[in-house]
Amino acid sequence: MGEPEHLRSTYNDIHNIIRGTSNKIASEFKPDMFIAIGGGGFFPARVLRTFLKDPSTKKNIPIQAIGLSLYESLPGTTVEQLNGEVVRTQWLGPDPGKRLLGRRALIIDEVDDTRKTLQYALNELQKDVEAELQLLPESERDSKRTKFAVFVVHNKLKPKLGKLPPNIPYFAGAEVEDVWLDYPWEVIDIEEHDRLAKEDEERKNITVDEH
Ligand code: 5GP
Q1: How far is the CA of 116 from the centre of ligand 1 (A)?
Q2: I need a surface site. Which of 80, 97, 105, 126 has the fewest CB within 10 A?
């Protein structure tokens, strides 16, 4: 099997993709909290904050961090077992449910590949919320239930193994084929990365011109 095709994104590419989606997120979801999935979601969350302010206070939107690692699925693993493959390396501090109650929380990652990580993150955060809601009188629960949405810089167009419920707003900055994305924060030599990204871009333009 050959090397999978790579797509190199520069810091500027990512900044502009995020900028391009920020109005839609502001008007359609109005988050007042970001939950960045580390490490890939940290930089996108910080950039998105530049374009969005808390809708009621006009202040910066707080960024909470969670860390998740995806372990390769074993052959024969069913969708029900998916959550077992994602491992928490970091979670919201003490009383996670309390931090979330009443908020409009946007879960942020750099890429939606199989969607397992996003499914896991949403399920676990919703569990924290439901546990906290049980401590409130029943009449208050619905109004305090956290509203979640998802933002990814890139969504890979491929069959997804993880699922997100249809009532969860989903924002993707860009849709891409099923290629391997190289992010600028992963490389040691950023000048070389940018040079190669430019070369790829020029090659793509030549190919398009030829058709
Ligand atoms: P999932 O398969 O759960 O949607 O993605 C899990 C994680 O795998 C992502 O958060 C990301 O860290 C990593 N990942 C998936 N596809 C890519 C890719 O094309 N490039 C990079 N750098 N990481 C990826």
Answers
A1: 10
A2: 80
